[in-house]
Batch of 3 targets.
Target 1
Amino acid sequence: MKTFYQYAMIYRGVQKKNDFKKMLADWMFKDHNFPKYSNDYDELSRYLEWNSPFPEALKIFDELWDEYILNK
């Protein structure tokens, strides 16, 4: 089973400009402290609450999380 981080990486490098999913995936990739092996919603959302890279990040995280759960 893929971790949330692995799932989010499908958006990394997407060529759309101003795509928030791409922005979040790129940030997660570059952030060496992001909990990459976690599948715990609470742990991931707390990390983003404390380290949010842009104002829409938590909303985008919730959207990605819903997609992740549906595609498990």
Target 2
Amino acid sequence: AEIYGQSDAQRKKTAQRIEQAFHKVKGIVDIDTSIETESPRKVFVVDRAKAATLGVSQADIALAIQTALKGNDISYLHNSSNKYSVPIRLEIPANRQNDLQTLLSVPIQSVSGELVALGEVVHIEQRNWEDTIYHKDLLPVTFVTADMSGYQDSPLYGMFELVDEIESNTQIEQNFINNPDFVTHSMLKWDGEWQITYETFRDMGIAYAIGLILIYLLIVAQFNSYFVPLIIMAPIPLTIIGVMPGHWLAGSQFTATSMIGMIALAGIIVRNSILLVDFISVQVAEGIALKTAVIDSAKVRAKPIILTGVAAMMGAFFILDDPIFNGLAVSLISGILVSTLLTLIVIPVLYFWYLSRFRQNN
């Protein structure tokens, strides 16, 4: 969950409320946010007026603190036994560097040559380290992240439960697709697994639609008809009758590879329909009665159609246990099984109805 808001405090408060909602949904684990725990620090603040009065510059103060904590080479020791000079380092012992009183007692030489204790020109303030500011599309954002555990391995199930939980308990606006361009109030944008899934299935759906259009145009060119391709493509929706129950029976999730299987099924099923329609057209052109031609088409073409379907199903069995291509295998096996059997019934009946009505009108 990406949290957008006008101020850091607003985003932090909203993110904490969203984090609480995450904890209420069963199965959501590894919940975390980009909110950083407050980390205190002590800051040496220079009293500029007093430092100027005592003749101590800010550069000298900074050098004194650096010398005390990190050390400073003030000179070098040269001797005849060593060709390299040895640095003489001035610093506070490591075991006393955390002692503020020791640091504040470090002497600084003023312009007049007098020694001034560091504590006379600085005071210590308690502050927090600045939090990391995350940006996305030039907008500051706070992240709330989590994962899904248990039998519902896809984070989408948990996300949609969260959507209902947030809607019922808060007034936060939720966005699923587009990132906000300008933020005037608290807003939540779902990203991560949801964004990947949405983009994948959106692109797959577009590819599926383009494939259906191209198939339709090819069949129009083959049969010189705008209605016959609709009959031939009628079994394509029938694949859903096999694919969805097939996933349920196999206990498999519908994934992107499942969608790829449905796209492939469109071509396989259309081929079977073309075989039946073409056989009927040839028989009718030879003077055989329409009813006889329709019945013969199912009888003659059933065997090759079933054999090709069984061959495709057997090939899919080899990837059935693959964790990535399991959805593809389930789609092919269940879709081909159901749609092949229905094609042998639906296509002859629809084409018989079409030709009978066409002949009556002409």
Target 3
Amino acid sequence: IDPFDYKSALDEARAQRSETAARLKEQEASLGAEKTTLTHARAQLAIAEADVARAEQLTARGNLSDRSLDDRRQVVLQRRQAADQLQSSIPVWEARIAQTKLTAERLDVAIERAQRRLAETRLEAPFDAFVTEVAAQVGRMVSVNDKVATLIDRSWIEAQFSLTDSQFGRITAKDGTLEGRKVVVRWKLGEATFAFDAIVTRVGARITSTTGGVDVFARIATPEQPVQIR
């Protein structure tokens, strides 16, 4: 199958995954910077609070004016507000990172699906086979339910023959079953005749209306010897 569209879909999914990975790194770096800034802000707040404590003692002794004390208290409020803002921004960054990770997981699934669809553009037989009834052609559109070809397993060849109802009755009355019985299949090619050992594997489920008998199927043990049977 022409792989262009499927390869393009895979490349696009990979590009989106790379973009998401870069965005995740950026968000994680921003989160780390916010935490570092918060640490510094808390240190500055501690210094400002200690300064206010000293100023209160000086003001109580009359060595510092009330205005200077208020100025120091205002600094504490500003630094506490800055620390609180940084603290509240951290959960926001963590939520963004979680969303980005979920997006990355969805893209990983999309990449896996695209890889599988790209691999399925090459149809490979699961066994060595004869190919017949080929319906695929260059330039033809293939839908989901279209048959591309028929494969006949080279190692699983069956001979089909029919038994009359009387023959079937005599054999089953004597042995009870046909499955597992050994048979010899002879294939005539011109003046040559080739013999193949086979074993009955299954019996038809109904009486054949044209012959009035029962269809029997025997699997050829070695369909490639003495010659590859068709």
